[in-house]
Amino acid sequence: MKEFSVCYDRFCLGNYTLVCDGSDTVQATADLGAFEMYVLGMWNDGLVVTMKAYDEVCGENQFVLLVPDGSEQLMSFSPGRGFVVRPYRAARQGRFAYLLDFLCGLKYKGYQGYEEYDEEEKMIFGIVRVGEKSLTYGGKNLQEVKSDFIQKIEQETASRDNKITNSEI
């Protein structure tokens, strides 16, 4: 298990425990939704997110730069050269590149949602307008939110289609 602390400048803004499996895929944790929304906010402003990660294999901290194009760069300190940054994952190939699809809000079948993070509930909630109805959707991370968003739209459009079909009979 790898734990990541999210840092910006010299100050640690948050301590999110993120778990990566052997392939470096981020697993859903209680902190994932908050972290995803934090990264989206930073990327929306064109800022790089710096993660301090403890590498259990090497037994040392590493700094991973999450760039707004979905790439990752590794930053290490060399006494002779100072901080050295080297490419790690290309654009849209980083662990959090899937977040790029959420930068403009969720869209499905012509409907667009709007999401916010609720710190008390530790959940992401959203609202989408389908016809005359405003539907709410949500989840603990953006993958859950996207799934619920699509499900709510499918249910509402199917229900409207059934009403139209029944009224024609």
How are the secondary structure elements laid out?
Elements: E1 4-8, E2 11-14, E3 19-20, E4 26-27, H1 32-44, E5 49-55, E6 60-66, E7 72-78, E8 82-89, E9 107-108, E10 111-118, E11 123-130, E12 133-139, H2 142-168
Antiparallel strand pairs: 1-2, 1-5, 3-4, 5-6, 6-7, 7-8, 9-10, 10-11, 11-12
Name a few traits of the molecule:
single chain; 169 residues; alpha+beta; Double Stranded RNA Binding Domain; six-stranded antiparallel beta sheet; four-stranded antiparallel beta sheet; 2 helices; 24% helix; 40% strand; elongated
Question: Explain this structure to me?
Answer:
This protein has 169 residues and is of the alpha+beta class. The protein has two helices and twelve strands, in the order ββββαββββββββα. The chain has helices at 32-44, 142-168, and strands at 4-8, 11-14, 19-20, 26-27, 49-55, 60-66, 72-78, 82-89, 107-108, 111-118, 123-130, 133-139. The protein has a six-stranded antiparallel beta sheet with strand order 2-1-5-6-7-8. A hairpin with a 5-residue loop joins β6 (60-66) and β7 (72-78).
Structural class designation: alpha+beta
Radius of gyration: 20 Å
Record field, number of beta strands:
12
Judging from the principal axes of the Cα atoms, what is the shape?
A: elongated
Low-confidence stretches: 7-12
Strand order of the largest sheet: 2-1-5-6-7-8
Proportion of residues in extended strands = 35-45%
> Please, how many helices?
2
SSE sequence, one letter per element = EEEEHEEEEEEEEH
User: What fraction, in percent, of the residue positions are helical?
Assistant: 10-25%
Terminal CA distance: 59 Å
Q: How many domain units?
A: 2
Mean pLDDT: 83
Q: Biggest sheet: strands, sense, closure?
A: 6 strands, antiparallel
